[in-house]
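Sequence design from tokenized structure. All designs in this work follow the same two-part layout: the structure record, then the generated sequence. An example of the structure record is given first.
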């Protein structure tokens, strides 16, 4: 699937109506409105997992790692995701509380790249998000010591079954079932952006890149060469 950009009523030389421009980065913070619009367009285009983002961290030894997580909120305060606090990424973030995320909207020929420091989401906000998760996800979340080795699939299923037993069964509303509370080792992180870059593919690889960067406490916007 390949999806064009915007209305093509006034298509330019390469057949597109409009060129991504630093002037699109307005508001406070200047990245938010364009990011929200592009995410909404990725959802509308029905690309798979439109809120998936590749999260880059650096561990205590300086070794980088990336993996995909789901964006569960983007506000002026930052970009949120939920994960295991004792996972490999959680340990890396404890050692180096900075990260990058990349939204690879390839079918739209778009990419957004965000960098900044990372803070834990308030436990009350984590609990509110947790409470909206399906019961099966809650049970799995409690059962998994994310990123730790386990001997077999059978061991994993046994761990999940033990947690289900502890909380009265996998089916909510079943006999004896009780609410599954969020585990201590699980919760949200918020990436607080200090730099957000938007990339839009164009003909002949003369692509558009615009960036909003926090410099000395103020946002500066500009264009980068492709
Ligand atoms: C589409 C997709 C979405 C994912 N979303 C999440 C997520 O929101 N949170 C999470 O902890 N892991 C998520 N994962 C799994 C992670 O990529 C990763 O395997 C896991 O978090 C362990 O990473 P770590 O060992 O580097 O900590 C997702 C994977 C895929 C492919």
């Amino acid at each position: 699937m390949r999806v064009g950009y915007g209305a093509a009523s006034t298509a330019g030389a390469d057949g597109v109506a409009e060129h991504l421009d630093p002037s699109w980065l307005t508001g406070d913070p200047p990245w938010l409105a364009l990011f929200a619009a592009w995410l909404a367009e990725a959802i509308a285009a029905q690309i798979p997992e439109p809120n998936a983002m590749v999260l880059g961290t650096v561990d205590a030894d300086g070794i980088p790692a990336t993996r995909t997580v789901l964006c569960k909120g983007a506000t002026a305060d930052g970009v949120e995701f939920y994960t295991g606090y004792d996972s490999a990424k959680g340990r890396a973030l404890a050692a180096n509380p900075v990260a990058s995320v990349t939204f690879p909207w390839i079918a739209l020929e778009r990419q957004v790249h965000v960098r900044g420091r990372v803070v834990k989401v308030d436990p009350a906000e984590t609990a509110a998000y947790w409470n909206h998760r399906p019961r099966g996800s809650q049970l799995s979340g409690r059962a998994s010591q994310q990123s730790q080795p386990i001997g077999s699939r059978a061991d994993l299923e046994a761990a999940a079954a033990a947690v289900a037993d502890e909380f009265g069964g996998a089916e909510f509303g079943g006999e004896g079932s009780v609410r599954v509370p969020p585990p201590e080792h699980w919760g949200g992180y918020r990436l607080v952006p200090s730099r957000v870059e938007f990339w839009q593919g164009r003909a002949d690889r003369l692509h558009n890149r615009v960036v909003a960067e926090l410099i000395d406490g103020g946002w500066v916007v500009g264009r980068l060469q492709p």
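The first helix runs from residue 32 to 44. We note this feature because it recurs in several other targets discussed in the main text.
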